[in-house]
Amino acid sequence: MKKVTVIYWSGTGNTEMMAKAVAEGAESDNSVVRLLSVDKASAEDVANADGVALGCPSMGAEVLEETEMEPFVASLEKVVAGKPLVLFGAYDWGNGEWMKDWEERMKGYGANLAAEGLIVNLTPSDEDLHACKELGAKLL
In this protein, which residues make up the domain named Flavodoxin-like (predicted)? Predict the structure, then answer.
């Protein structure tokens, strides 16, 4: 039984919508999926998972949310090596630089990125949510 954990931070609800779709995509007869907002998650949740999805919107000058998500991601440096991982998040403006930076950081931590980071402009469409489900399925 594969344990998949989806952890996210969402300000407006867009990334939360994406997280729910990623979790749905990771559900199968052979998986147990946990969906957690970052304030309820710990590095142990990541360490104990067979696959991990992290979601955070682009904030400010294309960075991760700095109060909760940034310290959480920093805490994962020693626990994500070799772990299948996908990243996702919504954005309002910019070119997705925060996602490219986040991918490089996770690779530097030794994570095994199962797919390119998925970014969605503002509210996810049905098509975007379908892409989120496909992203979640890559962790199986």
Answer: 4-140
